[in-house]
């Protein structure tokens, strides 16, 4: 008799169970197999082991890769883009870089006005 919270095989090795699909969705949140297993409804006591087992399954690996590719296509952003933005935020927060924002608005009399906003963040530790 299979264990209640074990990683089940699907019929003839095709597809994923509903719980495995949920694991894939949860895994994409933070890439933490243990927490994904818990959030997907697997036993907390065995989550680490089950998360590892799930990541070893080819069908789960393929589902994770497909979901990551689908998300990358949907949001049109790469890991390099994310790292670049994080580094830019660090530079702004540390005072090494100014924030420049351009806004175009209409004045009360209908004329276009270009506003350039410059925010300088001063590092209090300097």
UniProtKB/TrEMBL annotation:
It comes from the Bacteria. GO terms for biological process: chromosome organization. Keywords: Viral genome packaging, Viral release from host cell. PANTHER family: TERMINASE SMALL SUBUNIT (PTHR41328:SF2), TERMINASE SMALL SUBUNIT-RELATED (PTHR41328). This is Terminase small subunit. It comes from Avibacterium paragallinarum.
């Amino acid at each position: 008799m299979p264990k209640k919270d074990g990683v089940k095989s699907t019929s003839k090795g095709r597809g994923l169970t509903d719980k495995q699909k949920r694991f894939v969705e949860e895994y994409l949140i933070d890439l933490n197999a243990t927490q994904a297993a818990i959030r997907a409804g697997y036993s907390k006591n065995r989550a680490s082991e089950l998360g590892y087992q799930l990541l070893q399954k080819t069908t789960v690996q393929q589902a994770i890769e497909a979901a990551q590719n689908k998300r990358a296509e949907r949001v049109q952003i790469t890991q390099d883009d994310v790292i670049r933005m994080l580094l830019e935020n660090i530079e702004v927060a540390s005072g090494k870089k100014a924030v420049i924002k351009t806004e175009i608005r209409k004045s009360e009399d209908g004329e276009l006005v270009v506003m350039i906003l410059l925010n300088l963040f001063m590092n209090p530790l300097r």
